[in-house]
Amino acid sequence: MKKILTTMAVAAIALLLSGFILMGEDVPEKDDNEVQITVPGLDDFIGKWYLSSDNEIAGIEKAFPDIYAFGNELEIMPDGRISWHIGAAGAAGTYEVYDNQLVACISDIMEDDEVKIVLTLKDGELSMKYKAVPLIFAR
Predict the structure, then answer these.
(1) Regarding the domain delimited by 39-138, which CATH topology (the fold level of the hierarchy) does it fall under?
(2) Backbone angles phi, psi at 44, to 5 degrees
(3) Alpha-carbon distance 37 to 35, whole Å?
(4) Do residues 92 and 83 lie in contact, with contact meaning Cβ atoms separated by under 8 Å?
(5) Are strands 81-86 and 113-122 parallel, antiparallel or unpaired?
(6) pLDDT band, very low/low/confident/very high, at 26 (cuts 50, 70, 90)
(7) Smallest Cα–Cα separation from 16: which of 90, 75, 95?
(8) What pTM does this model have?
């Protein structure tokens, strides 16, 4: 129990520090000559997503401790970053988009491991498997 509480405390501190560091970053000025690269389908993924009520609750509770106490949000940013906070777990990484799939390499802050995930967009929902648990996200 002590190890779990220590891990949660370290994770919370890391999340807080990352937020403070990001808030202190200077935003570069826009260069009028800069070329914008667009990825077909990327705009469909960008934004915040939340666990859908269509998910199997038992599997989610097993994969994500304290799901009801902490949150269920996935965020895909236009600069190639992805992060989530589901239950007591959090993860962050980078992604690439191919047609209707987003392939991400993420690091789980609780388990300190890196995994590759694939999110598929279909009918306005994102689906993926994490820890062998199918997850569905909606806006």
Answers:
(1) Lipocalin (2.40.128)
(2) -70, -25
(3) 6
(4) yes
(5) unpaired
(6) low
(7) 90
(8) 0.70
Q: Cβ distance 74 to 126 under 8 Å?
A: yes
Contact 110, 14 (CB under 8 A): no
DSSP 25: S
Mean pLDDT of the chain: 79
Length of the chain: 139
* Burial class of residue 102, CB neighbours in 10 A (0-12, 13-18, 19+): buried
Q: Out of 3-7, 10-14, 62-66, which region has the weakest mean confidence (pLDDT)?
A: 3-7
User: How do residues 54-109 score in pLDDT, each as one tens digit?
Assistant: 998 888 887 887 787 788 999 999 999 999 998 888 899 999 998 889 999 999 87
Nearest-angstrom CA–CA distance, 63 and 130: 8
Separation between Cα atoms, residue 27 and residue 137, nearest integer Å: 30
